[in-house]
Hints:
The complex is a heterotrimer of chains A (about 130), B (about 280) and C (about 290).
Chain A: H1 14-27, H2 40-47, H3 51-63, E1 67-70, E2 74-77, H4 87-106, H5 111-125
Antiparallel strand pairs in A: 1-2
Helix pairs in contact in A: 1-3
Chain B: H1 6-14, H2 16-39, H3 46-78, H4 81-85, H5 92-123, H6 133-136, H7 142-163, H8 166-188, E1 196-200, E2 213-219, E3 239-244, H9 249-275
Antiparallel strand pairs in B: 1-3, 2-3
Chain C: E1 5-14, E2 17-27, E3 32-36, H1 43-51, E4 58-63, H2 72-78, E5 79-82, H3 94-104, H4 110-119, H5 133-146, E6 151-155, H6 163-180, E7 183-187, H7 191-197, E8 200-205, E9 208-214, H8 215-221, E10 222-228, E11 236-244, E12 248-257, E13 263-266, H9 269-278
Helix pairs in contact in C: 4-5, 5-6
Amino acid sequence: MIDFHLDTRSGVSAYMQIVHQVQRAVRCGLLTPGDRLPAAREVVAALAINPNTVLKAYTELERDGWAASRAGVGTFVAETAPRGVDLEVHDRLVRSLRTWLREAAEAGLDHDAVEALFTLALDAAGVKRVA
Amino acid sequence: MSAISGATWVAWRNNRAQAAVAGLLAAATAATLIVVALTASPRTGMALHLTWIQVALAVAPAVAGVFFGAPLLAADFERGTCRLAWTQGVTRRRWAAAHLGLLMGLSLLAAAVIAVAAQIWIAHIPADSVPNTTWVLYDVQGPMVFATVLFGIALGAAAGAVLRRTVPAMGVTLALFIALRVCFATLARPHLLPTATRLVSEFKDGGIPQSAGFVETTFLDSRLRPLPPDSGFGPYTPFRIVYQPASHFWPMQVMEAGFFIILAALLVYAAYRFATRDG
Amino acid sequence: MNPALEATGLGKRYGSTWAVRDLSLSVPPGRVAALVGPNGAGKTTLLQLAVGLLTPDTGESTVFGWSPRRHPTLVLARIGFVAQDRPLYRRFTVAETLRMGRELNPKWDQPMAEQRMRRLEIPLERPVGRLSGGQQAQIALALALSKRPELLLLDEPVANLDPLARRLFLSELMAAVAADGLTVILSSHLVADLERVADHLVILGGGRLQVAGDLDLLLPEHRWLIGPAAEAGRVGGTVVQAGTGERQCRVLVRRPRVPPGWTAEPVSLEDLVLAYLANPIAGALPMPEAVPA
């Protein structure tokens, strides 16, 4: 089960934040296909947000193949969702990323410079985009 | 209390404390009157009891109106709880009817109890202890007590419904109660029934009749014209009296009591109409 | 499908002052509508007119098609109302307050009410006057919700509550909306709260309607236009707020036509509300807003 949180200062709309949080959870393997997403009622009670926000988020996730709803039962992570990364793989990647970042900081790069460098490399690498 | 329900239950529960106090006061008043009546004897100082009991019975209707009639509706408006009551499932009319019905129902009971006790007390006053007790106690006889208690409470309820603030309603109730009672007594009462006139020019004419009420005496000179106010008079000075004969007593009671009861009914209706206006 | 609340030419006068004037709006069912405006703008008057606490001087309003003047019991059965300051009978215990709800409402859900009190850990036997502000607010809300309304109207329900109590209140409110498809109209000054819960907006200014509509439509309809101050006159559309600096100006426009060379930026709910509040003449709509069914 996933716990949503809302960052009101981020400038990102509430429903997009929910979409992103589901996507992130799936990518990290915290949610796998078949896992049930929290019912709209529960999300609404936890976050004190408009139920339509949750419905809009779930509808978009469904439309893009991340989730599938079963009438009367709930909304579940779809089989068609991108495979999450194995947790061990995930941890390994995070550790090597941290090493790289430490090196960049020691080389004198600030936050924006690191971001620019990374984006450049990412675009050049041609990593496949999903939805 | 599952015997009552709906808006009446709410009216009762909201005014439970006041109703209890009022009930206690009414019961205490009635009990005191009856105890005094039963323990009275020519040797116990009846005159003393007479005065403060008369005062108490005259004041009781005003107290009832000010402390129990006026706050009933006014408090609900003042605290804003009418906006809670009026957005549930009952109409304003039902709410007002429940409150006024409860108020007047309990008031009828209390007024009847006190009135009966007052009449019992009067019946036990030794006939020789106070001259002409009937007329002296005109204002505290059973029918008058009953009518004025109802009138005071109805006046309070109407003031509360119109002004919708407790303290002003209490003040207005007191002022109007006194004003209307005094006005009626001075302006209307003498004219309820035609007075009788008697001329006493010589001893043989019999003096002041037995049980004459509201006697007005005018002293006369030898030619039967009114004497100037400061003139002295003696046992042989002629005088003319205007009075209510004994036979007028109960009819006058009934008429005056009837007037105040009808007025009370009109005031309750006014309270109902004003209570249901926009809040 | 009847609108949850519809007003046509609604007006209410006190002496010579119009608290609400010429007001027409239509709130579709299922919305959570935020009612915003400065103090004295007519929010309380509008809410009280809608539930029948006040009689209008002009025009009329209906709740799901029913007029509170002609069919008071039908309207009362469909609405829940929490008045400003959340009035309650302070000497009643919580249990007696719920009983009051049961006695005065034909459609009363006692199990729901009790369950709500248990979940919020509000003791049933305590007099309401001895509870905290947050707990009293929850009771007022429970009273309104347990009569199973279709339209819930709240007049500044979270004013004077601490942040946690406010959050709990809104949480309960939204959960009820999720469960029952309730329509909600709530007036509030707290834009942060409204950003979380509202999907429909009604802005009042000086007793008149300035703006009303679904946020999904209103927000994209408005843009900040930024351009040279010298060209300020070239902006097309309805100007809500204009701010001119020495060289640059920034204008909030509804249905803008962007002059060449100018930039357009999206508008947040807070921007929108502040702009209309600061400019009471802007908008002042006399006709109901068109919203999709």
